[in-house]
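Usage example:
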Amino acid sequence: VGTTRRGRRRARARLDATGLAREIRSELDAGSVLMSVARILDRETGARKVCIWLWRPGSDPTHLLTTGPDEDIFPSDDDLTWLRKAAESSTSWRMPTPRGPGYASVIVAPQSGPLAIACVVHPQIDGRLTAFVDAVAEEAGFALETANLYAKALEEKEKSAAILDRVGDAVFVTDATGNAKEWNRVAEWHLGLPPSSGGGTCEALLGLNTDDGPLDCASGCALMRLQHTDHVGTMVWRALPDGRRQPLLATATPLTDAGDVYGVVHSMRDVTRLKEAEEAKNLFLATASHELRTPLTVIQGFAQLMQNSDYAPEGGWQVAVDAIARRSKQLDGIIERILLSSRIEGANAEIHREPTDIRAILIDEVESNASSRDRTITLDMDEVPKVLADARAFTTVIQHLIENAIKYSPGGQRVDVRVWSDVEQVHVSVRDRGIGMAPDHVERCFDKFWQAESSDVRRFGGTGIGLFIVRSLCVAMGGGVEVVSAPGQGSTFTVSLQRAEISVAADPDAAPAPVNERPARTPLHRRVDPVSTNSAAAGAPGAATPAGAPRRSERSTIREFMRQIGVPTREIP
Amino acid sequence: MRILVVDDQEDLRSLLRVLLEREGHEVIEASHGRMALAMVEVDPEIGLVILDVQMPDMTGWEVLRSLRFIQNRYIAVLMCTVKAGPGDFTTAERLDVDGYIPKPFDPSDVRDAVAEIIRRDPWSEHLGPPRIREDR
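Running the assembly step on the lines above writes:
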């Protein structure tokens, strides 16, 4: 070993004085550190050759780079074993090379151990040279350690950035002065921030408000001042380009280092949907309570009057008893409806799909509603194939649709119920000639708690859940419901359910019944001309219209087509 | 004086009738606005109308406006509505009615409102030459 302690001290001093140490340490990745080691040794020693191997004890050194012409790479493969042995025995050593005397020094990172070997070939290896090489190798060891740590830190940072991007909330980090440092992808999506992080203040980028006015961060993060200790967050809102308010549940948490705040982490959760649910709930409570209190007024009013037994109205209390009975039943219906919608929400509605004959249900519902509400309701159906449905759910659906039709045609107009089927489905339409709906109302009419008229001008009462129930039940039965409507012209709701057996007529020789020749009808049945729907006006193309439903003649055409392409068909009675 | 109860819900009408009859009033019923106006026209004894706001053919406010066109006769009107108090009404609405019954109501609400009108006696207040009413 050719370096004295004094020589090493001198070499160190030289490295520091000439700025070479800084040159090595300024590199932040391992490859660059070793490159700069080779460059410095080559430049500062006038070596014939400088060579760097990567090396870890127990493995063969891997040649990384050599200065000078390529053919001069040394040592040859045969020398590697020797090189390793030498390296493991000492941190530096003199060695003869084919190109003259050489000196090698192992680059050891303080924490990670030996990482590389630096070697110079120089005609004159003296103490000064070996001390210099050792000093550079030592410096390189530190630099490699730093580079390693830096690489790890980068990896960590990438990891935390990846985590940040997977957080469901928008995260927005500012420095102590309120300037944005970085934000995650959710922040880009939900807060409309540009994709490149950094730049701009909270106010400029987000423009948050509370109900008391804009947040003012002039004297420190306003959100942090509002922050509740429970970490649940503060409700703020952001004005969207279209003028709506985006409700955000926001928190602000300081980043501290030894008590000094050097930044603030903001998290913001878009609670638009929660807000909407809350508003829907409030609307429901307002309408439902009014809806419940009207029958209660009658029940309580009569009950109070009856309690004073010294008085009896002309004709006795029969009128009161009847009213109480009827209103109680109405209350029961409203509560049943609310519970049903809640069961549907919780996916607890028990729907059993099975082949169901809906004829009897339809006749029942039409008859009972026609008599109890003193309304003309026509029922137009001939043979109705069985459908996949839940009899109770289907009854509820038809009940709601007929009730709705009656409710929204206050002039006492006729209601038409019509049934027809095609190859796959059976359709039931309920048509009224009442007030109808504007196109934008048509889109929303199946929403929960929604009603076309706001509460103060409502003429029709109701809890706003009837059509929500109708659609939910239809979908649960594997079917659907569509509406065609126009203001002043009434609405037509069409329920479509799967046939129990997909069918076309089986026997091609069996003559299909002619279009106009229909089986005997129920006493309720009255022929009604196909209703003219207003699907274009209502913006609902594709809504099943009676005119578009396959008739018997078309069914035979379908059957013929199926026969031609070789698909066996059979008649379902 | 007769009281005319106008509401499209039959049992609410009956309730009002029974509870007012119990107070000794004479009560007749109408199921909608046009019927009410016709009855007022043929029956000079009707001095007070209890009007529901939400009715299918005409709203209570429309009926009220028609009632106020009648010359040489004052008909007191109790508006029966879901609106809670005077603050919920426009000035014109407030000036035109003689009182409110909140909906849903207690029998005592109705009794009190009717008793209050009779005590105030708006009929004598409005006797004399017909008032000139603006923006009618």
